[in-house]
Amino acid sequence: MKRTTLFASILAFTIAFLVSYNLSAASGGPCGTYLSSDGLSEGECDSADVNASDIASLQRGAQIYMNYCLGCHSLKYARYKRVSEDLEIPLEMFQANLIFGDQKLGDLINIGMESKESKEWFGNSPPDLTLEAGLRGPDWIYTYLKSFYIDDSRPLGVNNKVYENVGMPHVLLEIQGEQFSVCKQIPDIASNGGIKQDPLTGEQLTRERCGFLEVKDGTGTQTAEEFDQSMKDLTNFLAYMTDPMKKERETLGVYVLLYLFIFTILSYLLYIEFKKDLH
Amino acid sequence: MVTKIMNWFDDRLPITATIERHLTKYPAPINMNIWYLAGVLLVVVLIIQLVSGIWLLMNYEATAEGAFASIQYIMRDVEYGYIIRYMHTTGASAFFALIYLHMFRGMMYGSYQKPRELLWVLGWITYLLLCMLGFTGYVLPWGQMSFWAAQVIMSLFGSIPFIGEELLTWIRGDYLISGITLNRLFAFHVVLLPLALIAVVFVHILALHEVGSNNPDGVDVKKFKDEDGIPLDTKPFFPYDVMHDLYAIGVFLIFFVTIMFFYPDGGGYVIEYVNYEAADNLKTPEHIVPSWYYTPFYAMLRAITFPLFGLSAKFLGFVVMAAGIAIFVALPWLDRSPVKSIKYKGIYSKFFLALFVVSFFVLGYLGTVTSTPARTLAAQIFTITYFAYFLLMPIYSKYEKCKPVPDRVYLS
Known about the structure:
The complex is a heterodimer.
Chain A: H1 2-23, H2 55-69, E1 75-79, H3 80-86, H4 91-97, E2 108-109, H5 115-122, H6 132-136, H7 138-146, E3 148-150, E4 158-160, H8 173-176, E5 179-187, E6 206-215, H9 224-242, H10 246-275
Antiparallel strand pairs in A: 1-2, 3-4, 5-6
Helix pairs in contact in A: 2-9, 7-9
Chain B: H1 2-12, H2 15-24, E1 27-29, H3 37-57, H4 67-76, H5 81-108, H6 117-139, H7 144-158, H8 164-172, H9 179-211, E2 234-236, H10 237-262, H11 295-303, H12 313-326, H13 331-334, H14 347-366, H15 373-391, H16 393-399
Antiparallel strand pairs in B: 1-2
């Protein structure tokens, strides 16, 4: 038996070695060429910190969505009424401020734009976003929303770090302001993790890194922090859209688990009692 | 009064006798261990799948236009619809996890050896049916991965020489995967395959109760009986195993419910993220991966990268993949060992079984990631070691030195 264990462990170690050093070739992160604010990692998404219990954030997100996104992006698997209930927005207020046109509360959140026409306008019809947060992940959406920058070579005048050559215009430009892709000097990091210094003067060495995003002051209605928070709210709303039953599900799950724990403990005691017969 | 009614029935239908034979008085070896739980849990999951499946069916729409939206309708508008659906998706993964454990138990303790060959073959058929159920069910939500997985798997039939293309069109019922394909897979998934599965599971259990359960020592417990003809080293199924199983079911359900309510996506393994997008035949996903329970075989399919004897690499890969699934059925006739349980088998059997497990897991991992030259090489090596367990078995199981098997079960 001991030799078997030895064989097995040698094999297991070989596998672990192979897998970690040879087989898992590191590929870029999910967020395209998005550069973290310290300039050290590329393609990693920023965290959106979604929180399904933060009703205020969800309400703000819904407001942004209905005003800026719904023109093109439907939420065709969800209904207005459910959103107003889940987000604790009174029906009358919801109807007056967040439903446009003659749609009814019980309707699915559809849009008037024909996909045939939009395909002609944008090259691709804007996707439905009900399940986008499930498909891409909230962090991707959050980072994507922050990553539009002015690029005159593109037909719509903007490009995106996360989704290169995206066909979508920067709808939130008036809030965020004009963002540009710029180059900066960043500290040069040595291979041991320390900052490289000039051996004579002791000055920190820097190198140029391009691709940082920077907003031109005073061009948007919100500050950088406010805009980040708005995008977090919008992302939170989309995460809610994908999984509107999350809160209810997790609450119910706790009760089901409690029941099962009691059931299991009782059946264990019963089992122990019967087991005594066998010896 | 009750006795009278029961007698009336028993004279016309052997109800009491059947219940005693298959449930209450079925003699189960006293040394059964935790591995023996997979069987009873599989029955639990089968029931979960049947019940949740019926309720899903009440609101599912089997058309290319409506399938994807009907799933979202179930998730959002049907009362507790999300519970029904997550039960079914979690159940699918649990089904495979448990059947792999169940099969491994059989391989470890030689449960396929005489007189349980037919029992093993019947079990293998349930596994095949489960694979088909898993595949057909996976297509029904009509998401991107549903569509493209169907595309990839069905195209394998197109690689068969001479008849491939025609066969493929016949299977799909169209020149490409379409609503017609969806409808036939739907018919298989909700009628034909479950009916067959229930029937085969039923016969599997009948066969089990005919030959009796094996045990971790691989000892024939029927050799020594008491004066009533009941094997000495057994206990009646009721109440001892029922109580034991009830407790085990409780523990299992705690895990099951935790995934269902708190991690229904299972990190993208229970429900793939790509399937959040509706099927689009003009847009191929970046990399197409099967569900986790098929990945070892998918890795075998991709491992064959070279044509041979005028046969395409794709067809050869298909053959190797099919052989990887089919070869389990040959185990009773590949094993020449005089002993059943791995406990008493020799060092080679132990080594090759360990090698098999490692191969299965590594192939499973390789099937989930995109291929690189290094990974393809690894997949080729581990495909060989996977098959080595089976194909070399007639040799190593015959010539190795086994330990003596005790007459009766040994309780530690």
